[in-house]
Amino acid sequence: MPNILIVDDEAIFRKGLRKIIESSSGSWQVAGEAKDGYEALEMVESLKPDLLLTDIRMPRMDGLQLIHIAKERFPKLLVIVLSGFDEFTYLQQSLRHGVRDYLMKPVEREELFKTLNKLETELAKSQQVPELYTSEPTDARVIRQHVSEHLVAGLLKGYVNEGDLALLARIGVTFQEPYFACMIIKLDKDLLDKERYEKADPSLFQLYIQQIIQELLDQRAKGFSFILSETEVVALVNLSGQPEAGDPLLELSETIRRRMISLSRLTVTIGLGRIVNGMKEIPQSFQEAKIAQLHRLIVGGDRIISYARIKEGGEEIAWSSLLELPLGMLESSIQEGKLKLTREYTASFITALCSQAKSPEVIHQQICKVLIHGYEEAEKLELTQSWLGERTIQSVLLEICSLNSRTELIDCCSSHLEKLAECIANRQRKSDHDPIEKVIRYVNQHYQEPLSLTQVAEQVYLNPAYLSTLFKQRTGRSLVEYWTELRVSEAKKRLVASNEKVTIIAENTGFGNIRHFNRVFKSVTGLAPIDYREQARAVKA
What we know:
Elements: E1 3-7, H1 11-22, E2 29-34, H2 37-47, E3 51-55, H3 63-73, E4 78-83, H4 92-95, E5 101-104, H5 109-126, H6 140-155, H7 162-170, E6 179-187, H8 194-199, H9 202-220, E7 222-227, E8 232-239, H10 248-264, E9 268-272, E10 276-277, H11 282-294, H12 296-299, E11 304-306, H13 307-312, H14 327-335, H15 339-356, H16 360-380, H17 384-388, H18 393-401, H19 406-430, H20 435-446, H21 453-459, H22 464-475, H23 479-497, H24 502-508, H25 514-525, H26 529-540
Parallel strand pairs: 1-2, 1-3, 3-4, 4-5, 9-11
Antiparallel strand pairs: 6-8, 6-9, 6-10, 7-8
Helix pairs in contact: 2-3, 6-7, 9-10, 14-15, 15-19, 16-18, 16-19, 21-22
């Protein structure tokens, strides 16, 4: 007799379905009940049901993830989806792949009986019930675990080892090219018709987005996409090398954005991390994609936001001239962990900003930019939890954008930045015994000044040659390379955001003379400082 596994996180609903099925005139039997996807996978293996009757929204592993894994392992398993939402027309085609029917909650008795009778007839005619379940490898449970957890927690956070990759390869997830880049695709809920979103199951939106992205990846690139949360899809793109001309990621992202609009009238915002070399660098690209997504609050949705372009000054972010704003002093006070100065400079910064800005939107944009920069620093120092606690940076930015009083802005922003300075100060006290931490902190504070290896080594009482070797072992680059990158990065910001003369910028960023500055800047960026300024401003114009 054919049997059913019922999957729903509400016990009362599972019991109700069991009673309805047992009262039918058909021969279906309820083999078991599961409260979520993880429990259901265990029971599919042991009970070998003919039909999976599953809810969509459940904790831990939802119905869509369950269907994906169960159908991949047991292709002939029958599936009926249950949902309390009725917006499904535009998703029917994608969910029909592997799903036999879709029933609305509360389930109507006659509709369920009709569906079960139809499937029972099909099973009897096909006589393929014994072939539903084939032998599986002994480590199948481990493979499922890696499918549902390791791609997210492992690849994105850097926990992958060779054994994990071998397990992933067994289910067809391989990464053969040396370069990677992360994309985070987020549905623009605020641009979506409210009634349409509220009536639909959010998981279905994410599944639809993920399927379109994977289809385009299969056609135009190499990579793997998966649902990260109720609002985000991640795509890990595998590349053969750094592009010599154009940007294939921007082109792919634009195709995704346009495809979403043309097929379903959905808009998305895509955050792009930079292309990195090797799997160990994937977390860096993922973090950059997250930072890029945060800028949606500044530039708006329905667009592609590239972390690389943000850093190069080419992203369409409305920056007013910061020459008269005490922004540099504010950032220094935070990095040095000086709480009182941080509060004073925050008040000065916002006061000057409010007096110079042409609109409230510009004020919010500038403050959000400072907070995003603070978040990026906190992430690098692993201080985000200490700084924000249970809050997210998104909620902090939304709070800032809801304020229209200068006093409230100063109080709110000062509180957050002072807390960040406190966290950095506490970290500095704990790391005072670490010479490399002390060197990094010293260079960050003094890179504008003439520096020598001997001078820096004296700060930590080490031999210069030994410090140089130790620094490269810990950071992967030389001390000179580190402070050169800091100087060039600051010079790029000043070139784009100000009208200072190049000679002044060279002096204020620690370069001894204009010739040395021009040579180093061009070796790092590929452009002379004047050309970089003109190109960056032409892009923004």
